[in-house]
Amino acid sequence: MTIETQAIEYWDENTLLEGFFACSSSHDHPVPAILIAHTWAGRDQFVCDKTKQIAALGYAGFAIDLYGKGILGQSSEENAKLMAPFMESRGKLQQRLKVALQTLTSMAQVDEHRVVALGYCFGGLCALDLARINAGIVGAVSFHGQLKSPGNRVSEPISAKILALHGHDDPMIPPSTVAEFAAEMSAADADWQLHVYGGTAHSFTNPAANNPAMGAVYNKVADKRSWESACRFLTEIFKEGEMN
Question: What is the C-alpha to C-alpha distance for residues 53 and 68, in angstroms, rounded to an integer?
């Protein structure tokens, strides 16, 4: 299988963004796609590698850009500054996410009716927000993502299936927030799952994470287990799509 990759430029009003697209060259028909949202650092090599990993599974992958072409944070302080406007205005964030989703679904290689959003940390919140506003995705996967509700969830039931993968010892998402998330998903009549990994902190999927003081530490076992759960989730959703 040959994986072809390309940079995709797109705009949200006056902001030029650049995503990273990967798909096998062997497909002769549109395939299911995964929109991948980055951490608070920006669209870095980590999510680009995940995009190629997704393409190797037979899907199309698109690592989106939320900050602007070439913009990456170089420290926790810079990352927080980049993310802050979107946390302060979830409507602004959701608008940028919808533009990225529209860019992905317009591609000839993509089956626009079978798209899942997936994200890491800040990106996990992004994936969940696309589900919360019923943006047209069929599933959302959050890896150690922020779980706090945006306050503007649609009034009708959430149509996308939800998978949240969470470290029990993550200091950034306390048990009270996890409980609120569970209540929110149930109230929204969502088909949702929450997998909690014991002895696991924040950023557990990132081999470069090694900051115990901040609560961000890689966990090889949780990384493997969560990826396998995500892959099963994708298989289930996309097989159902074939039958509908």
Answer: 24
Instruction: Quote the CA–CA distance of 33 and 54 in Å, as a whole number.
Output: 9
What class does CATH assign to 3-243? alpha beta
What letter represents residue 15's amino acid?
T
pTM of this structure: 0.96
**Chain center to CA of 162:** 11
Q: Which residues, other chains included, contact 215 with Cβ-Cβ below 8 Å and sequence gap of 6+?
A: 169, 170, 171, 172, 201, 202
Q: Kindly state the helix (H) or strand (E) to which residue 27 belongs, with its residue range.
A: none
Distance CA 233, CA 242 (A): 15
pLDDT of residue 243: 57
Q: What is the pLDDT of residues 160-175, one digit of tens each?
A: 999 999 999 999 999 9
- At 91, which helix (H) or strand (E)? helix 90-105
d(CA 145, CA 70): 23
Name the token pair of 184: 């929110």
pLDDT above 90: percentage of residues in the chain: 93
